[in-house]
Amino acid sequence: MAIKVKKLVRDIRNKVKDMDEVTYSDFDIQDALNECISYFNMDKALRSSDFLEKRKYFNQEDMNAAVVAHNEAHPDDLQELYNFPVTGVELPDDLIKFVDIIRAKDGYHMHPVPSIENISPHTTATYKVTDGRIYTNTDFYLLYRGEIDKLEFEDLSSDEAEIALPPFLKSILVKITVMILTGNPETDTLMQEINRVTNNLIPGRRVSGIKARMPFKV
Fold first, then answer.
1. Three-state helix/strand/coil letters over 156-182
2. pLDDT (tens digit, 9 = 90+) per residue, 41-54?
């Protein structure tokens, strides 16, 4: 469930009556769409909904295999091996808010501890988040609310490229992008319009009370 970028670009060009790409270049549309995405990333209703839910798998063995391959190929740019309980692993750059941390081997919902020192070598049920890193004794899935990814230039002509938003928000994406292209309105005006739409379309889809979907079958 996402919005196809190529179709979105056609809708934007149709709205501004520029199907022949005379007035606005693809770079113009990319910049306007990415500005629009930035405003969506700031929207409170969207940030509190499950539409931005993402998951990422952290496997220490696989990650270290990638590090070894990198170090062999780039001896002048050596990277350190991962040790989850000792040095931790970086949080995703696009993280907005945690939803859950799940032990990979059996789907157990892990629980936080007060400090890294409380990460016992005898248990894989706990984790600690501090200084932008997660410390734990096991491979895990991180479920989180993440920012919408910005578009690369080649995405505009790709049949596969998507924006990770439900299709019913496409019309407001078109509207805001067109506003940016044609009028450069104030930030407050854009945010008010986005907030008006998302508050009406996303009622009650809040973080509290939402049961995290399992990233696998058990």
1. HHCCCCEECCCHHHHHHHHHHHHHHHH
2. 887 667 777 778 89
